[in-house]
Amino acid sequence: MSNSHSKSSTSKTSNADKLSASAAKLRLLKKLRCTLNFEKQAWATGAEHVAGVDEVGRGSLFGPVVAAAVILDPRHRIRGLRDSKLLPAERREELAFLIRRHSVAWAIAAVDSARIDQINIYQASRLAMLHAVQQLAPAASYLLVDAVRLDCQLPQQPIIHGDALSASIAAASILAKVERDRMISAWDPVFPMYGLASNKGYCTPHHLAALREHGPSPLHRQSFSPVWSAPIPQEVLGFMLDEAAPEVASGDDVVSGDEEPMAAISET
Question: Which domain holds residue 173?
Fold first, then answer.
């Protein structure tokens, strides 16, 4: 009995620690001010087109990681830009419309779950961000990137908590979040057992219970522990093997400011 009680107590403590860490991070992000200070520093070096770059969906169990790159117009201020995690869904949609309308350039790219399993989520996130940057027109001359450095020759500055500090990175985070939420919600009618419309593929109790009961879908990330440890093998759909294999090999899809955002859904 004592061993069982000890394990139970340890589990509860572990969960409490995770919740506390998550709550502490949100409190920190809320205290940070999202400004144009980093952009002004880059403009002062002579860089004309400063792009903010961010990704969304890194911790999700399902579907693609989505990245965006945004070059804000210094002559047109968009009020309310901040980390997408701190904004309600309706406000994100409103800001995404303004960002697409008033930015100098924007682009969205996605790397699908098959590619994530091949190269790992960290590299897939960097690849999605790089592809978004490469699709900008006009091209970026300087990058402000959330936390990481990209494999390109452009001058760049990785910024920890960049989406809470840089308006350009916040704008990219909002576009990526709105687009990914739309993509994942579109799969909810196909895989209703996972609750994708509400959890967006993230690790919730309902999602974990569905994985144990039904096993993973073909779009779950097999390299993620809750997916590969599910007691039922991952389902593979015939149409994906017959028709989608060539597309999966490329591992990504891109949407730029000249295209419709919903086109990115085709990558999954």
Answer: 37-186+245-258
